[in-house]
Write a structure and sequence with these properties.
56 residues; 79% helix; 2 helices
C-alpha cells in the first residue's frame, strides 16, 4: 500500500507541475479550476503520505 501511495503522490506532483508549467493562470497565486483540482489531489496525497510516516 505504501508503494502505491507513493506512486500516486509522485504522479500527482508531476501532473500538477506539468499543468502549472503550461497554464499562465496557475503560474500566479490563484490556480484555474483544472489546476485547483490537480493541486487539491496533490495536497491530499501528500498529507496521506506524510501521515503514513508518523504512524509507522
Amino acid at each position: 500500500m505504501v508503494d502505491d501511495l507513493h506512486t500516486r503522490y509522485l504522479a500527482a506532483a508531476d501532473t500538477w507541475a506539468a499543468h502549472r508549467t503550461g497554464c499562465t493562470i496557475c503560474q500566479h497565486d490563484t490556480p484555474c479550476e483544472t489546476g485547483a483540482a490537480f493541486y487539491e489531489r496533490l495536497a491530499r496525497l501528500q498529507d496521506a503520505y506524510l501521515a503514513r510516516g508518523r504512524s509507522v
